[in-house]
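Pipeline run #58 for the internal structure catalog. This entry was flagged by the ingest filter as a single-chain record with no existing model, so it goes straight to prediction. Upstream metadata was stripped on purpose; only the residue string is passed forward. Reviewer on rotation: M.T. Logging verbosity set to normal.
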Amino acid sequence: MDVLHYLVIASVLAAGAALHSAAGFGYALLSVNLLLLAGVDPYQAIPMVTVSTLVQSVAGLWHLRHEVPWRSVVPALALVTLSMPVGVWTLGRLTALDATQIRQVFGGVLLVVLAVHWFWRPRPRPRVHPLWTAAALLGGGFLGGLCGMAGPPIVLWVMAHEWSSERTRVTLWTLFLAMTPIGLLFFYGRFGPPVLEAAGLAVLFVPAVLLGTWPGIWLGNRIPKPALRRLAMALLVIIALFMLLQPLLAGQRS
């Protein structure tokens, strides 16, 4: 990769951090797909984005480290871990496709994830049904292995509980932090050294993530959260549609 390519990757990771800091979601949804459009292979884009989010998870978890609800986190992590290798295996099969077809698959997954995230608002309750728990966490693990977008199903599961804001946040941070080394292990087992190279690059790009976080916080303090979420959803839908329709758009240009 040349210097321009590194700058593009840094800009994408910074943009993902800005979106997440402003709207409260969307880091992987934006960054993974923009990296694919920039020509990064999916088995490198996903570890790159996963590792680059560690800074935010570690910083948040440190302040609430004594509040981690291990009785909820450990079984949840077990379910996520159970399905993640299936997602990684599926991604391995997808790599036989050309880059445009892979982007179409990711665009379709992104569109479905956004639709679920927008239309399905679970009502918080004291106890979530075991089948819903299994579906959400197994689905999150599969999506994490397939396309690095494990967040939405897991967030919906957490939000379905009548938990305090502190417990909600610390549960998410703990799960995402624990999923990182597990996911890297599965990715390395399937795709080899390029995964470690991508993870190493992500560490170098941590300053870009921090740089993107500050304007995101600034925007989040000045624009109402509902408006930011609508803008973020609109941006992600546009990206998803572009990835799905890219062959058609390319044919029209030619």
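catalog note: The chain has twelve helices and no strands.
catalog note: The mean pLDDT is 88.
status: ready for reviewer M.T.
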